[in-house]
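help with this record:
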Amino acid sequence: MELAWRSGLKAYKCIHLKSITYCSSYASTTVLGEDTLTEMVKSRWFGQDKKKVCLDLQSLANSNHVPLSVYCKTGVPQSVKYISIYEPTVSYYSRLGRVIVSYDTKKNSWHCPCHRTKKSCIHKYIAKWHLFQTQRELFRKVRSTEEVEVLTSAGDENTDDGADLGDIMYPPKDDQKLKVMVQYILKNKKIPVVLPEHFRLPSVEMEYPRHLIPEEIMCQHCPGNVLLSDPILITQKAKILTSSRIIHDVSTYCKSCHQCGSYFRYQEWKDGIHNFNDRILLDLPLCISIRNMLQVHTAISRVVEYLERTTGVKFPSADVIMHGYLHFEALTEHNYQYSCVNCGDHPPVVIMDLHKKGAFHLSVSDLSPPPEDFNGQTDMHSFWEALSVERIGRGFVTSQQLNPFTVPPSFNFWAPWIGPKTCRSNHVLNTEFQKVRPPKPTEASEITVTEDRLREELYKQKAKTQFIRFSIFNSH
């Protein structure tokens, strides 16, 4: 257009001016409020410095009598939002004094022509301000912790400012933080002994939520009312295993405390789901079915084979399902009501039959000797609680070798389980260490045999013995 003007063609119109003739409606101007921007700062969408930049650009737009931001209803696809932002500096990306910022709601990606990368800019801040005021439902502020970046919130983006949530370390690498998280699950997320009828019987018609968000709002460790963060996305590809099908593309979330750094994940049995490792979830009827199958001496590998043949779909490995089931049992309240019809609650002797599948090969030499002052007394309750913590901790690591709560076999910390109504106290006697024999003195490491002695022994062989070819090699 400038070239046409320099050539004397003052009546020339560019394609943008010509297209105005075909416009069927006018874009409405939205006045962005400072209170909305203040709310975004409190919610940590961006900091105070970015707020000041946004207000300065709004003041400049008002002084020039132009709208700061205009929502464009045209454009395809419909899942992409286009916002026209005022830009006072004319450049290669803003020839007309406006910049079009686009936001893809499906891919959750922002685009501004002033930057070819994902780096934030003032135009994206204004666009987020506009959408936060007009379409609040787009802002859920979640962030993925997977290796592949999956952003599912209009305002959460990889930027260099302090607006985003930072690097999400979930599950926490610190053993102490992980221990706090495991202990909280063990104490507060217990599954009752008797479940409702619809949770014990499998049903094809049962519907499960697709977005699993922890119900905690306040931090359970910090004193006072400390709000937790908004839901943080762990994965969008979790699976819910049932007896009849596998539900794919389930999103699991966690929440964090900005004060103590604790994490809270989804672990709600009231939805009929048991969360094992945030990616593999089992519905409660499947857990009950596995328990019943084990009680009739059916291995979990056979259970998995049965499920695959019945449903026609590929299930995770039997080892993963076994760890998920043991995770379920570690969180289940068990009602031990052992009683003998003759002796009552306290029989003099309790005999348990051998369970061969519970045995494992372990050399005695692999066990470290107990302390010298060990008298055989072992706290049964502490031992089995440690095993429960080990099972729960398995849901946060990829292998048992990485589990910081592993309980290795030992003489001084190993105890049977006896019901509370059958034992006098939590301390039981473990005398296995007394069966270990002391090591034998080492024998002579070398026995010398002369050639004459060896020849003499060969001559003493019986006549029926076949000839033995014997060669003696000289050292020469």
